[in-house]
Structure formats: structure tokens, C-alpha cells
Amino acid sequence: MEALIDLVPAVADILKELTLVVVQPSAGKGQFELGSFPVLETLHCGGELSTVQTASMLTHARNTLKCLRLHQLQSIRENFIGQDCSFPVLEEVEISQCLSITGAGVVALLLAAARLKKLTLSYFNISGKEFKELERHAAPLRCLEVLQFNHGRRLKDLGLMLLIRCCPRLRVLNLSETFITGELFSQLRLPHVSQLEELHLKKCEKLTDTGLVEMIKVFGASLKRIDVSQTNINGESFAGADFDFVPKVEYLDVTACRAVTDKGLFSIYTKLGHELRILKACWVTRFSGDSFAQDLPFAVKLETLELGPFSSVKEHGAKTIFAKFGGSLKELRMNMAIFTGRTFADLAVARRQQPPPVLELLDLTVCFEIADDGLKLILDKYGSSLKSLKLGQTGITGESFQDVELPRLEELELAFCSKLTNAGLQAILNKVGKGLKKLNLRDTQVSEKMLAGIGEQCSALKELDLSNCKRISLNGLKKILYSFGRSDVLIIMADTAMSEEEYMNMDPIPS
Description:
Layout: H1 2-5, H2 8-11, E1 17-22, E2 42-47, H3 51-61, E3 67-71, E4 92-96, H4 103-112, E5 118-122, E6 146-150, H5 157-164, E7 172-174, E8 198-200, H6 209-219, E9 225-227, E10 251-253, H7 262-272, E11 278-281, E12 304-307, H8 315-325, E13 331-334, H9 345-349, E14 361-363, H10 372-382, E15 388-390, E16 411-413, H11 422-432, E17 438-440, H12 448-451, H13 454-457, E18 463-465, H14 474-484, E19 490-492, H15 500-504
């Protein structure tokens, strides 16, 4: 350890970044004699550094330091920044798994770093009550824009509120895996207009519907992104929420909120959906989509909707989702929904009365009940704009493709489509082959004879997945490869009937 430390002064004049992680502390040596670091900008300390040693490092680098990371320091206390030390250009601080650092120590650091823009505390052990000391100073965190408190189970609403009051420029607040409830935010009065744009509350298991509503009221019209994934909210309290502003939320993530009901998600969308572009609601098991048959008080602007797996979406809910959001959506993922699409006939009829669709990605993977007739009704409505279509593990044969138009399709996934026939695949390639760039036929029963001329039909193809296609032999693969007449096509052949030796002994592909 001491031998390595002795090397540092030799490069101190040019050193801009230093990582010092002590595994075994030096016996009898309390402070490093390192001299100054005239250009050091990034310092990462970890391991068994003592309070005195850490303070020494920071003192030597204080005038130029822009980024400070403290990781798994086991024994430092509140005076780890040194006596009367200030950091005139420090902009980013990350403190992770330093459980012995006290709230007073964090406060001392914040007061010493007047230009701090980003603060991250992970796996910490403070409640935040010490932040009251900050209010005795004039705008101590006037430059702070990003505040991340992750895995802090002792952090309380009140302590957090004390800190937020001192951050007039705060734009990102990440409280993932804390015990924040949000309910005390009804008492928070900011001395400034909120500029917060992102609120991350992932895995905040004590967050309540009431608390979330109160937090949104505080941060209000500036919020653009909200992440409440894997929390216990149900959303139904939003029905009675009264906001004195028009929300500008563009991104909402309620993934794996198992308590969110169909009515609850509709209530949330009704209150926050005015400008919403992206809604992620995967693993929301109580969502069916039926509530969205009701009228909305604004025009839909949603562009990305992610639902499933394991939602409760069935025929009526699926039709409602297509009808309500189909005109604005660019990406729709509805994995494992239980519907056939056979009731969607009026969607295709309405096509002539509405603007052309803008849907570019449609993912119906593991929608087992989708078959050719239902798929045709969907593609009649949205096929003209689709670039990516994922139909893995559906019940299609492919033969319905001969009657639809897919002029822009570039990616088609048919993996595990056990009912896909050679005639169906031929209909698909006749319709979309020329523009197709990626085709997944994994675990299907298509024959090598059917694919023998695929290179000519799909002249733009870049990737072809034939994994576990047991009906393709070595000779069949040769014909497939040679049909492209070029070597820039990626063909995936995992778990096929062909042996590794046969594959390795193949002739080179013509250039």
C-alpha cells in the first residue's frame, strides 16, 4: 500500500483522475503525505480509508475536484471532508454503501460544495432530519439539479422535504427503494417555483395513492416523467384528485404495480394523460382495458403503450385499446393478451373515415388465440404503416397475408408459430419479401424446399433465425445460403438437425 502511494507524487502534476481503494489499512500511518494535485478532477475512494486519510485526500484536491465518489468506506464519520474545507468547482458527488457516514457529514459536504449539481446517496443510513441545518444558510444548494436517494430505508418524508426546500433548480428526483410515503408532502410549501421534471419512485413499497397525489401537486406543472413501478398504489384515489394545473407528464411507468386496477389506471390516465406519450403497464395483472371505453376529457396523444404479460386484457378490452389509442400509437405491445381480433371488423371499416395510421411496431407475442381471420382485420387497419410485426407463439398459418398490404414492413417475428404452413410463409414472402430485413422462424415447421429461394425473394434481408427448425438439413442450408449470393446475411442455426462438423465443413458462401 505505502509503496503504491509513494508513486502518486511523481504524477501528481498531471493526474486528472485517481481511484484509491484500500484493502488493508497501513499500520501506524494515519495520513498520506501526497502533496497537492493541481489538476485532479475525479477522485474515487473506497475500502478501509480512515476519516483522517479521506480528509487528507480531499484537502489536497479541493481546488480542482469536480467529481467525488466514495464507495464502501467502512469507518469515516461526519468530519471526513476536513476542517473548514470547501470545494469551489465540485459538481458531482456519489456516496454508496458508506453506512457509517452520518447525516451531519452529508450536510457538511453540501455546505462545502456550493456548485454541486448532482448528489447520489445509495445504501445509506440517515433519516434526513439533519437537513434542517441547511435552512440556516442562504441558498446552500442553489445549483443542485439531480438528487438520487436509493436504498435508504431510514429516509423519512420530513427529512426529504427539508432538503427539497433548499433546491430551487432541482430537475430530477430519484427515491427508488426508500420508505417514502409522500403523504406529508401536503404540508410542503416550496419557497420557489418547482422545476422538477423527473420523479422516480420505483420500489417505494410504502408509497400510497394519497402520497403520490400530494407529491404531484407539489411538483406540478413541470413534471414530465413519473416512475412508480413495483409500488403498491392502486390508482383509484386519482378519481377524486384535483390539480390546479394541466399536467405535462409525457412518460408514466406503472410496471408490476400488482394492485393497480382497471379503474385505477383509467383514473390515473384521466388526470395525467393530457400530454402523455409513453405508458408502461406490463405485469399489471388487474388491468383489462374495459374502463377505457369511457370518454376522455382530452385528445389522446399516446405514442407508446406496453401491456402484459399477465394482464387481464380480453376481447372487449383489446378492441377498446385499439379503438381508443390506435390513431396516435407508434408502438403497441400486448404480450399474452387473450383475444382473437375477430370482433375488430368495425376498426377496418372506420379506416376510411380517419387519418392514416402511424403504428410502426405491433407486438402480439404469445397471444395464443390470434389466428388468420382476426389478424387480417387488425392488419387491414394498421398494416400500411407497420415496420415491425411480432407474432411469436400465435395461432396464425400465414395465409391471411395474401390479402393485406404491408408496404413498409422490415421486421417479422414468427417464432414458435406451430401452425405456420409452407403456403402461409410463401404468402408472407410474396407480400413483404422485398423490404424485409429481419425474419425470425425459430421453432417452426417450414421446410428447406420452401426457403430454397428466399435470398431472391428477400433481397434486403440482413438476419434470418432458423434455430430449431428440424426440417432443414445441410443441403437445405446450402441452398438457402447460396440463394442470397452474398456473405453479409446473419443466419442463426442453433439447435438444428445439422451437426457442428457438417456446418464447419461447408463450402464458403459466394461473395
